Amino acid sequence: MPDILLIHGAAHGAWCWHRVLPALRALGHTARAIDLPGNGDDPTPAADVTLDRYAEAVLAATNGPTILVGHSMGGFPITAAAQRAPDRFTALIYLCAYLPRAGHSLAEMRKAGPRQPLAGAFQIDATRTTFTFDPDQSPALFYHDCPPEDVALAKARLCPQPIRPQETPIPDTSRAETLPRYYIRCTDDRAIPPEYQETMSSPLPPDHIRALPTSHSPFFSAPDALAALIDEIARLPSVNRA
Length: 242
Fold this sequence. Notes:
There is one protein chain. Helices cover about 30% and strands about 15% of the residues. By secondary structure, the chain is an alpha/beta fold. It has one domain: 3-Layer(aba) Sandwich (Rossmann fold). A 6-stranded parallel beta sheet has the order 2-1-3-4-8-9, with helices on both faces. The chain has a 3-stranded antiparallel beta sheet with strand order 5-6-7, with no helix packed on it. The radius of gyration is 16 Å and the shape is globular. The relative contact order is 0.19.
């Protein structure tokens, strides 16, 4: 089967997949997670972080045919990487993620949503290079159904998020769109409205859409169910081409 590479969302890192990785490995998969540049333990200065560098990091982490899973903001890096080298990937899975529209940045897509639950939760630094999430608001926005120990982990590990990648559009997504694309909606998401997830995923075939009754962080609240959905997709004949 193809490898599975997990890509985190804004202000997170590879650490957020600590429950999903063993669940996927128990199902027989080779699964890994990386820190995007400037996130997690990656030392890249925030001022040097770009969407191109995100794509380069994803491509550098691939070892043969790979399924990319992008959470939230991670929908942009996986699309950018697949646009550059679609032959390296067998599928893209968007986990309550922004599914990029050509010519639109993530910031533009967020503002186009029907509601803005994250409004007021951003704290932008004086240089407008990064933002952080208000630690007092983060548990309710992202982790309301998650184990207390994972909420504590997140509060300790959330990092400043470089802004530039979020303000950069992907001019062309046509090569990425030649790959099988799947979307996992989170129906109790309080960060990206579930109805907006439905809108973003609506161009995909109906049988390419799955759902979990969770918050924005199913990697904490439902890791086994999430792993099972990824496993189901990975075993489809159109995807399992490794």
